[in-house]
TrEMBL record:
Domain of life of the source: Bacteria
Protein name, UniProt field: GTPase Der
Taxonomic path: Bacteria, Pseudomonadati, Pseudomonadota, Alphaproteobacteria, Sphingomonadales
CDD domains the record matches: EngA1 (cd01894), EngA2 (cd01895)
UniProt-listed SUPFAM superfamilies: P-loop containing nucleoside triphosphate hydrolases
GO biological process: ribosome biogenesis
Gene name per UniProt: der
Domain EngA-type G: 3-167, 188-369
Organism: Novosphingobium umbonatum
Stated role: GTPase that plays an essential role in the late steps of ribosome biogenesis.
UniProt record similarity statement: Belongs to the TRAFAC class TrmE-Era-EngA-EngB-Septin-like GTPase superfamily. EngA (Der) GTPase family.
């Protein structure tokens, strides 16, 4: 079934021009006069290999529902209910208006994922509005010129995640991170990774209470990433929580992986990390922490996934206290970018610690999906700058203007200012660590991007 993408925005921001650009024909009437489009218009869009149904809608106006403009708005709302993705178009030359803010608030309340598109962004005239659109709090805007065809590659990249065939087959709808109730209802996508023979499949069998996965003393039994839908009953609250457990192939050192089949299995395990929300890195208590474990952990963090460390076979561990403390210290040293990762000891054979592992995974997903209110983020920003002002290399002051949370899952922030190219990495780490510590993200990976004013279409 074809994906359906809807174009939404106030009048005269270029929605129909974008519609025509995507269908490759001038099907929709275009004029400088606002309100030309009234009914929904459907077309077959083609964008660099992506094929989908595009829906043009009437300009959103705040009018009485019984008026013509009000009824047009109701048509747009109805179209949104059947859409897979919404393109929220704003006019970069005109800047953000109160009506744009109203549309943004409405879209954030809906379940349909939204891509913010700053149209008419060509040249310097659109630069101010492009950066102003970050204030809508809807992530990175895609700068385009529908009239001249600029920015289509960037629009393709923004749309691509919603056309992933594997995601479609999994049948899991996207979650609005701000809807806590929907987030709690949605299955937790939990992948278990690690070196061969760490007990990943055995752990899943223990959780399920049945021998669902083939296990044995031989390393490398699991080849394909196996996804299993399961319901966990929280022993503290008796609440039933859905989970999608993902077992993966063991990931050995790259130099040891020579067979084609194992290479494919490892690649499949990496794909499972991409699909997951929370990743369990499973260690073998009889072997401790090895360099390969740190490499796997770094891969998970680079992909922006929430990570927890689980030491299996704890029932046969020697010097358990020393082992645990040694692993904790080695993780803090080897993964300095995210200190304080949850470390749990479990035994898949006896079932000890497995409920705590699942409960911690749900807590991590909540932190990974968290959005900080603007007021709280501003208070933190002022406090962080007062406690430790940015340096002045060469006597020239670095000015940090403001910060915004661009997205969640993983939490991503954009810092705006001048001379940011001279900002030391140590100060970036200070800000990132402060965000995690002060704003409740704890050990969840946080991304901080630096932005200085520049023409979005200027070629370096």
């Amino acid at each position: 079934m074809s994906r359906q993408v809807i174009i939404i925005g106030r009048p005269n921001v270029g929605k129909s021009t974008l519609f025509n650009r995507l269908v490759g024909k001038k099907l929709a009437l275009v004029d400088d006069q606002p309100g030309v489009t009234r009914d929904r218009r459907f077309g077959e869009a083609h964008l660099l290999g992506l094929d989908f149904t595009i829906v043009d809608t009437a300009g959103w106006e705040e009018e009485d529902p019984t008026s013509l403009s009000g009824r047009m708005r109701m048509q747009t709302m109805a179209a949104l209910e059947g859409a897979d993705v919404a393109l929220f178009v704003v006019d970069a030359r005109h800047g953000i208006t109160p009506l744009d803010d109203e549309i943004g608030r409405y879209l954030r309340e809906q379940k349909v994922p939204v891509i913010l598109v700053a149209n008419k962004a060509e040249g310097r005239a659109g630069e101010g509005g492009y950066y102003e659109s970050y204030t809508l709090g809807m992530g990175d805007p895609v700068a385009i010129s529908a009239e001249h065809g600029e920015g289509m590659a960037e629009l393709f990249e923004a749309l691509l995640p919603f056309f992933n065939e594997d995601d479609e087959e999994e049948g899991l709808p996207p979650i609005d991170p701000e809807d806590e109730e929907a987030l709690n209802r949605a299955p937790l996508k939990l992948a278990i990774v690690g070196r061969p023979n760490a007990g990943k499949s055995t752990t899943i069998n223990a959780l399920l209470g049945e021998d669902r996965l083939l296990t044995g003393p031989e390393a490398g039994i699991t080849r394909d990433s196996i996804a299993i839908d399961w319901e966990w009953q929280d022993p503290k609250t008796d609440e039933i929580r859905p989970i999608r457990l993902i077992d993966t192939a063991g990931m050995r050192k790259k130099s040891l992986v020579v067979e084609k089949l194992e290479k494919l299995a490892v690649a499949d395990a990496r794909h499972a990390v991409d699909f997951a929300e929370v990743v369990v890195l499973m260690l073998d208590a009889t072997r401790g922490l090895e360099h390969q474990d740190l490499k796997i952990a770094s891969l998970v963090l680079e992909e922006g996934r929430a990570l927890m460390i689980v030491i299996n076979k704890w029932d046969v561990a020697e010097d358990a206290s020393g082992l645990f403390n040694g692993i904790r210290a080695a993780l803090d040293e080897g993964l300095a970018q995210v200190k304080g990762l949850p470390v749990l000891a479990v035994s898949a054979r006896t079932g000890k610690g497995l409920d705590q592992m699942i409960a911690t995974a749900f807590e991590l997903r909540s932190a990974w999906s968290k959005r900080v209110p603007t007021a709280a983020l501003n208070r933190w920003f002022d406090s962080a700058l007062s406690a430790n002002p940015p340096p002045a290399p060469g006597g020239k002051r670095i000015k940090l203007r403001y910060i915004t949370q661009a997205k969640t899952r993983p939490p991503s922030f954009i810092l705006f200012g001048t001379r940011l190219d001279a900002l030391p990495k140590s100060y970036e780490r200070y800000l990132t660590n402060s965000i995690r510590r002060d704003l409740g993200f704890n050990a969840v990976p946080v991304r901080l991007t630096l932005r200085m004013p520049k023409n979005p279409f200027k070629k370096d």
